Amino acid sequence: MAEPPQREAPDLTRAVDRYARAWTDAATMRAQDLPILEHQKVALRDAGAALDVDRPWATLDLLTALEHEPATYKAMTQMHGRERTAQLVEGIAHEARVRQVPELKAARLVKIWNRLEAEREGLRG
User: Fold this and answer.
1) How far apart are CA 88 and CA 71, in angstroms?
2) Would you say 93 and 64 are in contact if contact means Cβ atoms under 8 Å apart?
3) Quick check: pTM over 0.90?
4) CB 89 within 8 Å of CB 12
5) pLDDT at 10 over 90
6) Are 84 and 20 within 8 A, CB to CB?
7) Is the pLDDT assigned to residue 28 strictly greater than 50?
8) Distances (CA, A) of 68 to 58, 80, 82, 91, 101
9) Taken in order 59, 68, 90, 2, is the CA torsion positive or negative?
10) pLDDT digits (tens, 9 = 90+) for 53-106
11) What is the pLDDT of residue 73?
């Protein structure tokens, strides 16, 4: 008999949602070429700290997922509510696996290498 899918702890989903709202506020300011306001910086820092309490390294994992996983970036920038939170939690979990599983880490490095090679070729041509 298959196990039911694991549900994330309510504290983690709240922390992810809080971080997403703070990140979005800061991104809106950056997109308008405006400085991030002090209270926005504090909100982002505090939300990241709360996220790391619920799951160590979660903030770093989320930021890495935003950089390398288009689905996570799309969730952060185009989704809202529970759907966004669920996708971001999955992005965090995926990045934790990338850190821990050598094959996934190697695949990520190859992906980065290929992107850098393509950029280099573009600069040459």
Assistant:
1) 9
2) no
3) no
4) yes
5) no
6) yes
7) yes
8) 15, 20, 22, 10, 16
9) negative
10) 989 999 999 999 999 999 999 999 999 999 999 999 999 999 999 999 999 999
11) 97
- Checking if the pLDDT of 1 tops 60, the result is no
Nearest CA to 11 out of 56, 65, 39, 51 is that of 51
Amino acid identity of 43?
A
DSSP string of the chain, one letter each residue: -PPPPPPPPHHHHHHHHHHHHHHHHHHHHHHTT-PPPHHHHHHHHHHHHHHHHHSTTHHHHHHHHHHH-HHHHHHHHH--HHHHHHHHHHHHHHHHHHHH-HHHHHHHHHHHHHHHHHHHHHHH-
Which amino acid is located at 83 in the chain? E
Distance (Å) of CA 35 to CA 20, 26, 27, 77: 18, 9, 10, 19
Q: Is it the case that residue 2 has pLDDT exceeding 80?
A: no
The one-letter amino acid at 66: L
Query: According to the model, what pLDDT value does residue 6 have?
Result: 46
Q: Which position has the token pair 């970036």?
A: 73
